[in-house]
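PROTEIN DATA CARD
Card holder: chitinase
Chain length: 425
Origin: Paractinoplanes atraurantiacus
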Amino acid sequence: MREWKRRLVAVAALAAVGGTVAATPAQAGGKSYVKVGYFTQWGIYGRDFQLSKVQSSGAAGKLTHLNYAFGPVTADGVCASADPWADWQTSFDDAHSVDGVGDVAGQPIAGNLNQLAELKKKNPKLRVLISLGGWTGSAYFSDAVLTDASRKKLVSSCLDLWIKGNLPGLPAGVAAGIFDGVDLDWEWPGSDGNAGNVIRPEDKRNFTLLTAEFRAQLDKLSRTTKHRYDLTAFLPAAPAKITAGFEGDKIFKYLDFGTVQGYDFHGSWETRANQQSALFVPRGAPDNPDFSVDVAINAWLKAGAPRKELVLGLPYYSQGWTGVTDKNNGLFQPATGPAPGIFAAGTEDYKTVKTLPNFKIHRDLRSGHAWLFDGTTFWTYDDPAQMIQKALYIRAKGLGGAMMWSLDGDDASASLTKAVSAGLR
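Structure generated from the sequence above:
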């Protein structure tokens, strides 16, 4: 085993038993690691997760970027709000406001956007990006980027709504200055995503042209506002999707960085309990070829991506199966179906699975993954020890940092976020 892989195992073992892990130097050249957390627009409803919790938990102070998810692209080829009520209309009381002061009637803007503005006041170095698309909001990207004119139209509409802050029905520029850039979450150019998405072979080239158009319009706006805007993208882990949809040697000319999906390698849509976010393919894995973090990162490097601009995505949730055969501690064993979950079958937040009774933690330190098993039900498990190991992988591989999906899955003390931050100081 290579020395850096031995170090991964040693650090994970120490973290798993509650040992203190010494900080290691920042990236060569003095550049700090980016730490990106996604905040979901809809989390304020059933999950009761407001931006005030990002602040009170201490998570906000550990992040460099917060991505607000999501803003869809419409059939008309423009950017829009998926939920204006959540974005800028709903009010928050004292207890649910970032600054502790509730919204009042007649203020210029309310909703999550106003809370983002308050969060930035509390954390002046935090950069907030609007994430465009997502799993259910990517259906019309392909149409919207088909021509030079349509790309210009799309990008202009996105900047007008989210960056310039011209919200429908409110005074011009009311939300200006809240967002510091754009995160492209087109899932996926040139290959299947959510059912019904428009897909074309031309998506691959057009995604590059889209990044170029965003970069050009953001830079032009910067000359007026004197504010530099970030452009990032969420990128797939599967080598086939990379090949089908991305010119890895070209898009990073325009992107500040890309976040690579480091999870959902396997999940409850399958009939066998498995890992969803292992660093390396585990020994005895029944699939060949198989997915892992290292497979994904190496595929992007092979495609021409600069390693310092690749940011590894980390899951704050688990994939789960039930009716799992009691053999090999459940790993790779047949299952009868998805495990019950609070919001969806087969998935559960870290903050919930960490408190499940009668489950035993199992770790494969060599492969960099863990799981919980009670003899029948199996949950993948990324806890602070796994985050420390993954932070060390990021360092050893020379990557640009970490991304976390999503902040509402963490516990009240932001244990996962704090572990990532400690590992990437």
